[in-house]
Amino acid sequence: MIKIYRSENGVLIPAEKIEKHSWVLLLNPSLDEINYIEKKLKIFSEFIRYPLDEEERPRVEKEEGQVLIIIRIPMPTTTGLYNKYETIPVGIILTEEYILTICLAEHPIFEDFIQFANKAKSFDLSKPVSFLLHFMLHGTTLYIRYLRHIDRIIETYEEAIFRALVNEEILHMLSIEKTLTYFNTALQGNDLVLSKLLSGKFIRLTDDDIELLNDVQIENKQALEMTKVFISTLANTMDAYVSIVNNNLNVIMKFLASMAIILSIPNIIYSMYGMNIPLPFQELPPLEKTPHAFYILNAIIFAICIVLFFIFRKKKYI
Prior knowledge:
The protein is an alpha+beta fold. The protein folds into 2 domains: 2-246, 2-Layer Sandwich (Beta Polymerase, domain 2), CATH 3.30.460.20; 247-314, no CATH class. It has helices at 31-41, 45-49, 109-120, 128-161, 168-198, 207-272, 293-314, and strands at 2-8, 11-14, 22-27, 59-63, 66-79, 82-94, 98-103. Helix 5 packs antiparallel against helix 6.
């Protein structure tokens, strides 16, 4: 899909054809669309194809006046039972006349960015560096928004995970941990890109651009620190859960062992009375051949069991 925008009175509006100082947006483009843009804008073929690689890492390249900036942005996905986030590459190509952005999927960040730009009413596509930095700031803000949502999910599952009798909550926490790993890797790469841009070797920066770039770096570092904190929190939660599970298992084993000992007393005594040997209340004194032997024997068994029960209860085995 090809979308074209131009700026007018600080607002981004759709355009029917590519003109000077236009923003061309490629979303999941076909081969014909790639070839058309490549010939129309005279963009290096590699610059267009690099961002379409799902595993492409953030970086900056410059060749014959064309600058390629690749960053990774978060994208919500649904896999199986769980909602999670991944990161995908976005390529931004700056030339003297055009701004080209390439993404392998239709990401909602572009519509959000257009709405943000139209509210600000201060965008001028003849200043591609300002466009680039505002877009990167918007992408970093998106990380922070999703991280806050993940924080709320973690707090919810921190309470549920310790009461969990099934693996659903555990699997969800592992999914969140995977998301945070993606975020951490992507934000570190984006931070490297920002540092290279700040050097001034790839794009020309004005004082306003440097100030805006510093703001983007601050937001990116904040998102990176939040990600690291959440990874640490999640790891501690999982470790605590493992410890609690082991402790609960020990408690259950103590309970079962105690009950097995108590229930073994009747079994031992009743087994003895099945043997063909002289036993109390049968052929041995006291009370040999008494008609109340059954009740006396059960009373003794009950008393022994009660004593063992209170002993185990005092030791907190039961």
